[in-house]
Amino acid sequence: MKKLKIAYVGFGKSTNRYHIPYLKMRDNFEIARVVTPTLMKNPEAQLALEKTGTLFSTDIQDIISDHTIDLVVVVTPAQSHFSLAKQLLQAGKNVLLDKPAVEKLSEMQALVSIANEANLFFMPFQNRRFDSDFLTVKKVIETGYLGRVIDIQVHMDHFRADDTIVTGSNFEGAFYGHGVHLVDQMVSLFGSPEKVQYDIRSTRQPLSTVDDHFAVDLFYPNQLKASVHVTESALVPYPKWLIQGTKGTFIKQDVDQQENDLKAGIMPGTSGFGEDSPQAYGHLTYLNQNGDRIEKYIPSESGDYGRIYDTAYETLVNGADKLITDAQMLRVIEILEGGFENG
Fold first, then answer.
1. What's the CA gap between 78 and 125, in Å, rounded?
2. Under a CB-based contact definition with an 8 Å cutoff, are residues 215 and 100 in contact?
3. pTM of the predicted structure, to 2 decimals
4. Does residue 105 share a domain with residue 160?
5. Which spans in 155-257 are helix H?
6. Which family does it belong to (predicted)?
7. Domain match, 149 and 255 both
8. What is the CATH number of the domain that holds 76?
9. Is 239 exposed, middle or buried (0-12, 13-18, 19+ CB in 10 A)?
10. What is the pLDDT of residues 91-118, one digit of tens each?
11. Over pLDDT 70: what percentage of the chain?
12. Whether residue 342 has pLDDT greater than 70
C-alpha cells in the first residue's frame, strides 16, 4: 500500500482539530512536513509529530523543494489562501485548500486552470460532506421516502450575544465562513441552482460591516427550493434540517457531534466518537404505498471528516474522480460572491 506524504501549511487550531486527528487513524498517510510562522506555538503537538519524523520549519520553500511530498494541505487564514495555493500549484504541488477556499470566482477559475494545465490535484476541504446529519439526509432522500423533494432547509444556528461593531471584508463574514459548507452540501445534492435569492445581514450590531446572519434560497427545476440559514441570534434554534416532499417530511433537530467531541478533546477512534444518541435521531413521517401514515426515527449515519482524505487518496493513487468537481467548486464560490455583488 502506497503511503501519501502530506505537508501542512499552517499549524493552528484547525490543523490540529479537523485534520491531523483523522490522519492518525489512517495508515496510508504520513505527515512529512509542517510549515508554520511560529515554531513551538503548540509545543506538545509539535513534539509529538517530530517524534514520528515530521519536519517543522517556517519557510514554504522547504515544502516546494521537497519532491517527495504528494499533497500539500493549506490551513491558514482565508485571506492567504489564493496566493499560497497559486504558489504551490505553480510549483507543481497537489493542493487541498481549507475553507473558504477563495473570495472571488476569478480566483477559483485561475487555480482550477493552473491545476488542470499541469495535471495536478486541486480541491477545497469540504469536510462537512461527511457530517453525520448530512449523510443521513442524503440517505433519506435517496431511499425515496419523501417522494419528490420540494422544500429543504438547513440551519446552523447559535446564540452568541455580542454588540461589538465588527468591520472588515465580506470574506470574513458568516456567509463565506459557514455558507461555503451549506451551499456546497446543496450543490452536491441537487446540482447548480437556476436562481439564488439573498438575505445577508449583520443583526447583532447593525453598524458592523461583517455579516453574522443569512438566509439564502437556491431555486431548482421541478419547484424545488433549498434554503441555507445561519444566525448568531437564535436563543432557540430551528431544527438543523427540515425537508418536505410530496410523500413525507424529515426533521433532524441536532447537528453532527464530531465537532462537539473534538472541541471537548474527544478524538476519532474513541468509543462513541461523533455518535448520535437515539434521542437525536431524525424523525421521518411518510405515506407508504398503501397510503398509510408511517412515523419512525432514522438512525444517524456515521460521520467522518477524514473521509475527505480517503477520497483524495483514491484520486491521487487510484485515479478516481475527485469528490468535488471543478464545476461544483466554481459554482459554490460564484454563489458566495454573488451575495455581495451589489454592495
1. 12
2. no
3. 0.96
4. no
5. 174-177, 179-190
6. Belongs to the Gfo/Idh/MocA family.
7. yes
8. 3.40.50.720
9. middle
10. 999 999 999 999 999 999 999 999 999 9
11. 99
12. no
